[in-house]
Amino acid sequence: MKILILANFGMGLYNFRKELLEELISQNHEVYTSFPRDEYSIKLEEIGCKFIDTPISRRGTNPIKDFKLFMDYKKIIRNIQPDVVLTYTIKPNIYGGIACRLENVPYIANITGLGTAVENGGILRKITLFLYKISLNKADCVFFQNEENKNFLTKRNIIKGNHKVIPGSGVNLNHYTTLSYPKDTTVNFLYISRVMKEKGIDQFLDAATYIKEKYPNTKFHIVGFCENGYEDKLKAMQERGVVEFHGKQKDVRKFHKMSHCTIHPTYYPEGMSNVLLESAACGRPIITTDRSGCREVVDDGKNGFLIKQKNSEDLIKKIEEFLKLEYETKKLLGLNGRVKIEREFDRGIIIGEYLDVLSGVEKRNKDGL
């Protein structure tokens, strides 16, 4: 089959879906990828994908640019004439889905989170849900990454056809292996994410300021691209010795290696946190928000702790609880997380789900249905 994949950036495809793409290529499918050209477009071409440079404003709300994206998708579909289209993230799901529906092409959508427009309510929510209904109503399958997102859309009759909850993007367990738990007397806490308000950076910095003062044998590391004007604040806090900012990194495993615990106080509306999946796969305890996309990865008290949303005091409380644990108990939390990931979040599970749906699409195409 000719399989077209629509996404908003290459990193997500390469880091979280490469194994699926490799499997499709190994089965002699012709795989096309569409997203804005970046450093990952070449990497995807190297594994056998054909790349189509497609500009997209990931967070913009300009209707003219969005209409152009929709027209670009229609043109791509007409030129390639794919047998099936896979879409990821909000704009490819919406505008790619509408284009597929109008061109009568089978498509499979993946809801990687409903986005801030839906989360915040108001007129943008109404518009987004209206577009979701048009785009997803005729999808051959809609994959959700958590039950809450599924319930939100199905209860509003946005999704009527085949749909299923899968365990996020899963984890490559050979790439993220169980790491030895560090025995350092200094306890290292790790934040891995975009440095932005909705990812809980303010709560992390509040906790770092308090804990570092009370427990000098702690370090707070930040790894990720800095957004929303936090550069000056991070620089000042680093100069005072409160945090260590490492910027964007291509491979975070060296940070997991020295870390004792991952802190992810996000309240961003994501489908399933890859940061948490990878941290737990490495055998690291987790402190994260009690919300969809996070709580699925943590059995509270068994492989980490859940905290209240936007609550610095609760985060501080859980960090102190963690610091009071014995070394072997901390280590066991991490090992429990690895077991949970192996059981529930192996990336092979996701690949199997996609292959199952794609085989059904291929059969219907052959039968002329």
Give helix % range.
Answer: 40-55%
As a whole number of angstroms, the C-alpha radius of gyration is 21 Å
SSE pattern: EHEHEHEHEHHEHEEHEHEHEHEEHHH
Mean pLDDT: 95
The biggest beta sheet, please?
7 strands, parallel
Named CATH architecture of the largest domain: 3-Layer(aba) Sandwich
Number of domains: 2
How are strands sequenced across the largest beta sheet? 3-2-1-4-5-6-7
CATH homologous superfamily heading of the largest domain: Glycogen Phosphorylase B
CATH topology-level name of the largest domain:
Rossmann fold
- Could you name the ranges where pLDDT drops below 50 across 5 or more consecutive residues? none
Protein name: Galacturonosyltransferase
Domain Glycosyl transferase family: 187-337
Organism: Salimicrobium salexigens
Pfam family, one: Glyco_trans_4_2
Describe the structure.
The protein folds into 2 domains: 2-170 and 346-367, 3-Layer(aba) Sandwich (Rossmann fold), CATH 3.40.50.2000; 187-344, Rossmann fold (3-Layer(aba) Sandwich), CATH 3.40.50.2000. The strands form 2 sheets. A 7-stranded parallel beta sheet has the order 3-2-1-4-5-6-7, sandwiched between helices. It is globular, with a radius of gyration of 21 Å. It has helices at 10-26, 39-46, 63-80, 90-103, 116-120, 123-136, 147-155, 201-214, 231-239, 253-258, 274-281, 312-323, 327-344, 347-367, and strands at 2-6, 30-35, 50-53, 84-88, 107-111, 141-144, 163-165, 187-192, 218-223, 244-245, 261-264, 286-289, 304-307. With 369 residues, it is α/β, with parallel strands linked by helices. The model has no long low-confidence stretch (mean pLDDT 95). Helix content is 47%, strand content 16%.
